[in-house]
Amino acid sequence: MTTTTRAAPGDLVAALRLPVWNTLSARAEGLRRDLPTRPDAPAERFAWLRSLTPEQARDAALLDHLDALRAHLDGRPALGYAPDDPLPDAALEAAEGFNPQLTALITRYRAARDAAPADRPEGRRSERL
What is the pLDDT of residues 31-75, one digit of tens each? Predict the structure, then answer.
């Protein structure tokens, strides 16, 4: 006899937050290593952006996106994401496919979240503002 246990979305949020953050961090570090060093000063950064190849520019934009999602998971809400959304869909999508166990956990979280009543916070779908 097989017993199926269903985790609550809130429990899965706690289980997912760190592995998703770690996956986003690993992806960001890989991009950071492959890109030329990004200067901090605005004028220098503008020149740096203009010097990038199209592929490097795409990677720089992805790096900025991953950094914003990591900050959101750390409690510093990213622009365009609901401040009370603990795991935006964009973060889940960016972490999927790099670790089979994490991908399976993300799938369980989505199923639990979608099955939760809409009036409960963990039942809400992630919505971009």
Answer: 999 999 999 999 999 999 999 999 999 999 999 999 999 999 999
Asked if residue 95 lies in contact with residue 24, where contact means CB atoms within 8 angstroms, the answer is yes
pTM for this one? 0.80
| DSSP secondary structure, 50-96, as one string | HHS-HHHHHHHHHHHHHHHHHHHHTT-PPTTB-TT-SS-HHHHHHHT
Tell me how far CA of residue 116 lies from CA of 86, 108, 122, in angstroms: 15, 12, 7
Backbone angles phi, psi at 128, to 5 degrees: -80, 145
* Burial 78-107, CB ≥16 within 10 A → b, else e: beebeeebbbbbbbbebbeeebeebeebbe
Cβ neighbours of 16 (radius 10 Å)? 22
Q: How far, in Å, CA of 36 to CA of 51, rounded? A: 10
